[in-house]
Amino acid sequence: MSSVFLSGDPQSDAILADDPFALLMGMLLDQQVPMEVAFAGPAKLAERLGKLDVDEIAEMNPDDFLEQFSIKPAVHRFPKSMAARVQKLAEAIVDDYDGDTAAIWTTGDPTGPEVLKRLKKLPGFGEQKAKIFLALLGKQFGLSADGWQEAAGDYGADGSRRSIADVVDEGTLLEVRAFKKQQKAAAKAAKAAQQ
């Protein structure tokens, strides 16, 4: 697998590039924390658990898992809720895909819309998160499913700077961050105008 620049930390990025579950977990964690913090989370957890094993994570005692998740620096700023989400995600992958995360986007040679549908069924993946992850697979992980760009919507557009799917180096990280800041400001202004 090629190298990626999602967390900005070479060791964390290496795990993301090689381990589909780590990548999916990074996307799950990408809320209410900076993108690179979210995508560094799987490496922190792998270090604490010895490895990222989707079956083991699914079967771990939730209190024990939370304890590992919460060690400072915590994997996420909301360890309790996010640890539970990671375990639910692991359980879904074990139950629906026999523990093979990549099967979500490979089994049965699915189209882009089918991959999107499968992603949206996962715990913690709404429409937007599923589209961003689909765009990430297409732009940086060689997903060639028919119609993935259309299914990913604006996130699939060539040359866009909207999400983690577009981050390939420090420069693009800053561009995506600027775009997100601009979107938040526009949403805030629209809300203020309605009051």
From TrEMBL:
NCBIfam families: HhH-GPD-type base excision DNA repair protein (TIGR03252). InterPro entries: DNA_glycosylase, HhH-GPD_base_excis, HhH-GPD_domain. It holds the Pfam family HhH-GPD. Residues 26-159 form the HhH-GPD domain. SUPFAM superfamilies: DNA-glycosylase (SSF48150). One of its GO terms (biological process) is base-excision repair. This is Fe-S cluster assembly protein HesB. One of its GO terms (molecular function) is catalytic activity. It comes from the Bacteria. It comes from Brevibacterium aurantiacum.
